[in-house]
Specification:
It contains 12 helices and 12 strands. It is α/β, with parallel strands linked by helices. Helix 11 links the parallel strand 10 and strand 11. Bound molecules: S-adenosyl-L-homocysteine.
Length: about 400
């Protein structure tokens, strides 16, 4: 079962499984419990703060760009490699701005080594996971077809407060928000592994980043946006990843969707809808009692109208719960009105979580659901389920228990 964990972590694991198996659900938690703050990292600071910090240390201004380049362009966390900075200064800068934030507990791989899930321990013992998926790797059939590309799925919180009953993370409750440094470090690690050829397929780059790991990114808005800004900043200031390749997935925090709309960042917005009707959505996504399906869809459409970016609607198909043909029609009704050019529906076969009474839809119901949407002119795809056997697939990240 679990390897690389302390006895306390193993018992937390057992507890969370028992909790899930008892079929208990956790209450919705909007506040964020305060825990020890993670150590400050260069990624947490904006340009002005970086300049101030370097000035306060009495160091020359150009150290700002040097340090930024080492960390986010060269992906070099080890100060001994910062050879354009005097040795004594390297130590000072590393200690103050580049502490190691993520400790690798273990890696699990699947799909011929092209899917790698990593369990990380944070400074306070919280556990989070990220998943690196490489597609279209020549010679590795399990990596799928199409052009070669790499996606990293990252966590924005340790746990999650949104309490969706079908999601393993949601059932564990929220521990805390991740800092910008902790969010970015997951990406930096994946970028470095790809660059160094540690994933089958030879040296490569990240094409896509999806905030579909643990947590509700919109509930940790500031840290998430700051991390995104460094991801999209061109080298040498940032990782140079296209904003279009970054997907922020939300359960539907309407004010934050509106805030993102105003950022002027062409990231992709994904909204986890899972039901077109409030009666069922109240159950599947308890936050629906605060912002209902119609309000969420309107905010999502507003995102498209302002940014021109097509919104992805996530819908986990759950057998006999939300997969009826009439619900496909209701979904089309809800999304329509001004046509369907603004939206793409992404159906996810449910990944059952331990002890859950729910399971994935029958193939015939899934096909009928797809056909119904297509008949209405809605763009729809069914998500592939990479990394299933290592619990790396959607909604299965539950580091306390994985
Ligand atoms: N909090 C964000 C990110 C969650 S994970 C959000 O709600 O969008 C990304 C996607 O996986 C979400 O659409 C989520 O609803 C879905 N998901 C969660 N648990 C799942 C499960 N057991 N099977 C399939 N998809 C699941």
């Amino acid at each position: 079962m679990v390897t690389g964990l302390t006895p306390e972590e193993v018992s937390a694991y057992a507890e969370s499984v028992a909790h899930a198996e008892a079929g208990r659900t956790v209450p919705l938690a909007l506040g964020t419990p305060r825990r020890g703050k993670p150590p400050l990292h260069w990624a947490d600071l904006d340009a002005a703060q970086r300049a101030d910090e370097i000035a306060a240390l009495g160091l020359p201004k150009f150290r700002v760009n040097q340090l930024t380049r080492h960390l986010f362009d060269r992906l070099e966390a080890d100060p001994s490699g910062w050879t354009d900075i005097p040795k004594v200064e390297r130590e000072v800068l590393a200690a103050r701005f580049a502490p190691s934030l993520l400790e690798r507990v273990r890696d699990q791989s699947a799909d011929g080594g092209t899917t790698v899930k990593t369990l990380w321990r944070l400074h306070d013992g919280s556990l989070v996971e990220s998943v690196l998926m490489r597609y279209g790797v020549p010679g590795v059939r399990a990596s799928g077809s199409g052009r070669e590309r790499a996606t990293v799925c990252i966590s924005s919180q340790a746990g999650c407060g949104m309490a969706c009953p079908f999601c393993a993370t949601g059932q564990g409750g929220l521990q805390r928000n991740l800092s910008t440094g902790e969010i970015l470090a997951q990406v930096v690690d994946a970028a470095r592994r790809l660059r160094d050829g540690e994933v089958p397929g030879g040296p490569g780059r990240i094409n896509n980043i999806v905030f579909m790991g643990m947590g509700e990114p919109m509930a940790n808005y500031t840290a998430v946006l700051r991390a995104v800004r460094t991801m999209v900043a061109p080298a040498p200031e940032g990782l140079g990843i296209s904003a279009r390749g970054i997907t922020i997935s939300t359960v539907g925090l309407v004010p934050q969707i509106q805030r993102l709309t105003a950022e002027g960042l062409p990231v992709t917005l994904a909204v986890s809808l899972h039901a077109p009707d409030d009666e069922l959505r109240d159950e599947l996504c308890p936050i629906n009692t605060r912002w209902n399906a119609r309000e969420v869809v309107n905010a999502a459409r507003g995102y498209f109208e302002t940014t021109g970016r097509r919104v992805s609607i996530e819908y986990a198909l759950i057998r006999d719960v939300n997969d009826q043909a009439w619900r496909a029609d209701a979904l089309a009704d809800l999304l329509g009105g001004t046509g369907y050019g603004w939206v793409h529906v992404n159906l996810i076969p449910l990944n059952p979580t331990p002890g859950s009474r729910w399971t994935a839809s029958r193939r015939s119901d899934e096909d009928a659901f797809v056909r119904r949407l297509e008949a209405r002119g809605v763009a729809v795809t069914v998500r592939d389920t990479r990394g299933r056997e290592i619990d790396g697939a959607c909604g299965q990240l539950a580091a306390q228990g994985a």
